[in-house]
Amino acid sequence: MFGELQHELELHAPASEAWDLFGTLRIGQLVAEELPQLFQSVELTEGDGGVGTVLKLTFAPGVGGPSGYKEKFTKIDNENRIKETEVVEGGYLELGFSLFRVRFEVIEKGEESSIIKSTIEYELNDDNASNASLVSIQSLVTIAELAKSYLNKNKPSTQ
């Protein structure tokens, strides 16, 4: 069984600024600092932010789904502003998923605006098909909204 969830949010920031946040480790650092209700911790366990980097995500108690997992950066396309991660240990893999991928795309809309498109793709074996109900885009929506707020607050002065 294959599934996909998507969300788009317009940002009032140039795509280059949004990519500086999403295309690096900065988004994980921001999430760890600003979303304790969602993430107990976001730890860098391997790498420097490039392809092959591994993060250990531990969700706050009470957040639905798995308690945590390790994800690996599998694609960072600076030209097209696409970053993909896949769960490589724990979490959804322990619930019968053979693939759990998160993709962030920063799409240029205009000189001072962009869209962050968040996608979850997953594959689940048929024996565990009922676990598809555990997949939610809500944490990515929250991260996109946090990024929007952060980018709006930290706009360079145009004076």
Automatic annotation (TrEMBL):
UniProt keyword Transcription, yes or no: no
Pfam families linked to this entry: Bet_v_1 (PF00407)
Domain Bet v I/Major latex protein as annotated: residue spans: 1-154
Keyword field contains Ribonucleoprotein: no
InterPro entries to which the protein is assigned, alphabetical: Bet_v_I/MLP, Plant_def-hormone_signal, START-like_dom_sf
Any Gene Ontology CC annotation: nucleus
MF terms in GO: abscisic acid binding; protein phosphatase inhibitor activity; signaling receptor activity
Keyword annotations from UniProtKB, A to Z: Alkaloid metabolism
Any single GO BP term: abscisic acid-activated signaling pathway
PANTHER family recorded: BET V I_MAJOR LATEX PROTEIN DOMAIN-CONTAINING PROTEIN, OS08G0374000 PROTEIN-RELATED
Family that this chain belongs to: Belongs to the BetVI family.
Protein name (record): Bet v I/Major latex protein domain-containing protein
